[in-house]
Amino acid sequence: MLAKELVAASTVPLVLSVLTEGENYGYALIQRVRELSGGKIEWTEGMLYPVLHWMEKEDLIESEWHEAETGRKRKYYRLRKEGRKALQEEKQQWMSVHETLTKLWQPQPRLT
Amino acid sequence: MLAKELVAASTVPLVLSVLTEGENYGYALIQRVRELSGGKIEWTEGMLYPVLHWMEKEDLIESEWHEAETGRKRKYYRLRKEGRKALQEEKQQWMSVHETLTKLWQPQPRLT
DNA sequence: TGACAAGCATAGCAATGCAAGGCATAACAC
DNA sequence: GTGTTATGCCTTGCATTGCTATGCTTGTCA
After folding, report:
1. What letter does residue A99 receive in the DSSP assignment?
2. Which of A3, A40, A97 sits opposite B6 (nearest CB)?
3. What are the backbone dihedrals phi and psi of residue B39, each rounded to the nearest 5 degrees, phi first?
4. Residue A13 in contact with residue A60, Cβ under 8 Å?
5. What is the pTM of this model?
6. Which of A14, A79, B74, B92 has a Cα-to-Cα distance from A21 of 20 to 30 A?
7. How far is B12 from chain A (nearest CA, A)?
8. Which residue's CA shows the smallest distance to C1' of C17?
9. Residue A85 pLDDT more than 70?
10. Does residue A74 sit in helix, strand or coil?
11. Which residues in chain A have their CB less than 8 angstroms from residue B33's CB?
12. Alpha-carbon dihedral sign for residues A92, A97, A100, A102
């Protein structure tokens, strides 16, 4: 199981990124992320839904209720312009840290 | 400035990683990380020292006071075996998330 | 008919991040 | 000899927050 700090840091960028695949609903996001991570990232609904609400409040995403084929109602989320912008920013920040870490993970960090 | 979640998630792995370069002290760790990140990662002492104390309590690192060339006293930290193990674990977790994100960042994520 | 999966939601409080502040010494300018 | 900046360590305190636990509905299948 992943450290909670890492989960916290990756939730928003992951939601934004998954939504670039097309609109999707909460329950399916959890499964999509589990699938993409090979089971390593296990979100709970209790942590995801508040994040989705916050992201909507921030205009990163928007939602709409659809009736699924099954007759069941789902709340679909879609990326907004603000969200695409935020994703770019998140990518850059992530890569900054990633590059810093990988510099140190090279065989002989002293020589860099 | 980086999002605070990302800072939180990267602090311990960064400290562990920098210490693989050799023992070092708190104040210098802040500068080393600033340097390695090209100024993107700006730690404050108020957040770092408690983390160092926690890491020492967890036996990830150990400390010793040395007199610097300047005559000033510094508390040097060194990696312990537990810390090296923790670093391996942190690396794996980081890479899990990184790989998940980069899958989604490819030009046509639908096709993966 | 009852158990499970799908689906969304939030109250509540334990845990904690870190800004702010404190202390001390070296170095340097004037 | 004094004012300032950089170096260097430390902790308190409380606002913020993460997320567990819980609750509800509906579809499906045995």
Report:
1. H
2. A97
3. 85, 0
4. no
5. 0.91
6. B92
7. 10
8. B47
9. yes
10. strand
11. 100
12. negative
